[in-house]
Amino acid sequence: MPVVTKFILTVGCIVGSTAVGYAARRSGKVGENVAAVLMTFVVVVGYSLVGLLSIWGLDLRSADAWLPALGAGQILLMTPLCIALGRLLWRDRSEVGLFAISAPLGNTGFTMGGFVIYLLQGDSGLGLVSIFGLMWTPMMVLVTYPVARHYSARPGSVSLGRLMFRSIFDWRSIGLPLVLLGLILSLCGVARPAFVARLSILDVLMFAITPMAYFSIGLRLRFSYVASMKRMILAMAGARFVLGAAVGLGLVAVTYLTAWPLTGPARDVFLIEAFVPGSLSAVAVANMFSLRPREASVLFVANTLSYLVIVLPAVIWIFGR
Fold first, then answer.
1. Long-range contacts of the stretch 182-189 (C-beta < 8 A, 24+)
2. In a designed cystine with 146, which of 164, 244, 247, 314 is the match (CB 3.0 to 4.6 A)?
3. Mean pLDDT of 283-294
4. Residue 106's beta-bridge partner residues?
């Protein structure tokens, strides 16, 4: 299936699924609590399988090693910065927690960052996107999960370091060993089963879990929350589009102090991914850990729309020349 066709189907799936979820809640036919169950399934089962199969069989090159390392570094740096900013802006722990898990995570996958890079670089860009995303699941498990646990629990109940350790062995963290398994299989030269490509297993998975996830967002979506969330929506835009770009530029600058500076298309891939809008995964984590899931859905939708209208034209102008 051509990439453009996939994107058109994905956008239609996103808009349609969200609308159906919103209508289902308004009609009273589906309870809002269903969203937490669906989101947990999407992350634990769907994303874990996609992570395993997309990395297994990937052609890994030593020259691209900066991409996953900098992708992990972006989240590691953004998370404490966003926690500090959240504490300055809000006193409520759950608001700080929602901002701390939402602002560091960008929509780096096919539906946003990956497609923008495809428009600018073609198929080779999509290959670099796959390499960039190698550390996504480990960072979710090791960083985002513990932060979500910390702010959804009672103050002072468990230290953040202990929560980080516990997250590794949490049943919801099954994606981490599966990603590591896929990486080991690729490095050892073990071929991925031919039926995965022949039956388009990855496409089937993506077009199964994507509507499920956005249906859940529709169930949680409350447009009436927008007015009360103005500060968080603006802070999210500043964190994703300004702070994210600044951290990305700083990390690229660090590579120029080494013998292997990040240059060319790989550098552009990282910089574009550094300030894409917020990730759907943050909404899933908010649902999994009961961390203001309604507000998380509104924040995701508002941030995505802001990117499409304001930031994306500038990205295409800067990186498309």
1. 182/51, 182/52, 182/53, 182/54, 182/55, 182/56, 183/55, 183/134, 185/56, 185/57, 186/55, 186/56, 186/57, 186/58, 186/60, 187/60
2. 164
3. 86
4. 278
Burial status of residue 6 (CB atoms within 10 A of its CB: 0-12, 13-18, 19 or more): middle
Measured distance CA(173)–CA(167) in Å, rounded = 7
User: Can you give the residue ranges of every domain in the chain?
Assistant: 3-319
Confidence of residue 247 (pLDDT cuts 50, 70, 90): very high
Note the CATH number of domain 3-319. Answer: 1.20.1530.20
3-state SS, 63-83, equals HHCHHHHHHHHHHHHHHHHHH
| pLDDT tens digits along 113-143 | 887 887 788 766 777 887 888 788 788 888 9
Angle at 246 between CA 244 and CA 250, to 5 degrees: 115
Number of Cβ within a 10 Å radius of residue 71: 25
Inter-residue contact 163 to 36 (CB < 8 Å)? no
DSSP letter for 190, please: P
Residue 298, token pair as written in the block:
């509104």
Structure tokens at 52: 């395993």
Closest-CA residue to 310 (of 247, 237, 213):
237
Q: Which residues contact 152 (CB under 8 A, 6 or more apart)?
A: 94, 97, 289, 290, 291
DSSP strand E in 8-123: where?
Answer: none
pTM given for the model: 0.78
Read off the pLDDT of residues 16-49 as tens digits, 9 standing for 90 and up.
Answer: 888 899 899 888 888 888 888 888 888 788 878 8
